[in-house]
Amino acid sequence: MFIYCLELHLALPSFTLKEKRGIVKSIQGRARNRFNVACAEVGRQDNCRVAVLGFVTVSPDKTIARTILERLENWVYEDWPDVEITAADINEI
């Protein structure tokens, strides 16, 4: 069994924490439904302009787990053009 984690650092087009919450919740909910991953906001909760999201997947195959998270990163890049990915890191746990 292999556990992989994607940490995404995002620059958001929001000016209030309420706007930020709407963007983050939308990304999280759609990612859960589309990629079957667990996700959470793992840092920078107090800043409305940036977010750090963590996504985790478990698979019996390394390649499948890593591919899922790479596809998720590309999906965020393509489906949210106003959200800038400032950093992304995929690690095996």
Automatic annotation (TrEMBL):
InterPro entries: DUF503 (IPR007546), TT1725-like_sf (IPR036746). Coiled coil: none annotated. Transmembrane segments: none annotated. This is DUF503 family protein. It comes from Pelotalea chapellei.
